[in-house]
Design goal:
Helix content is 63%, strand content 0%. It is mainly alpha-helical.
Amino acid sequence: MSLPATDDGAAVADGAAGPAPGPAPGPAPRRRRTAPDGAKGRARRRDVIAAATELYGEVGYRSASLREVAARAGLSHPGLLHHFGTKEALLLAVLEQRDEDDTVAFVEGRRGVAALAGMVDIVERNTHRPAIVELFCVLSAEATAPDHPAHDWFRRRYETVLAFAADAYRAAAEDGHLRAGVEPEDAARRLVALMDGLQVQFLYDRAGTDMVARLRDELRAELTVPLP
């Protein structure tokens, strides 16, 4: 489920007025970059995302301040803001990194039944990171508003996930592993809806909601072969 990258690291606009008319004495001031570039900048961003992911898992998103994230990443508060202009931008980067890591670990290069099994593996991993699941559920609901800064990112994400699941079902059908009457596109929508719904139920009742078992039951009813 490789997800489209988002420009979530842009710095906050300075809001400074333009230069006065007429020639300015001395050399013109060097323009500030709106975001760091190069290998060092990318490494710093990864460090911040890792620190934020760790802190969110310990104290929750609402209780974690950008100053705490900066300290854990070995940066000053202004240094962190140079990479992520807002707390929301950093949260979105954390979720995006989670998706990229899951893609590499569980679904990249897989097709058919193996790809569907990879989606189950992702759900199993989510049972061990409830704080990140909660962040995703809250932000995805808030982002349904068209003017939300994460709206386009989530819309593209759902398009990508649905396309991946539909491709997996189509490949399963080509391999003779999909039961007659199961339409790949419809099955993909049911699967993604089930995954999202189970996440919400899991947050309300972690002990009583077995997301992995429910998902495997759904796939077992659609496939002619057992999941790996």
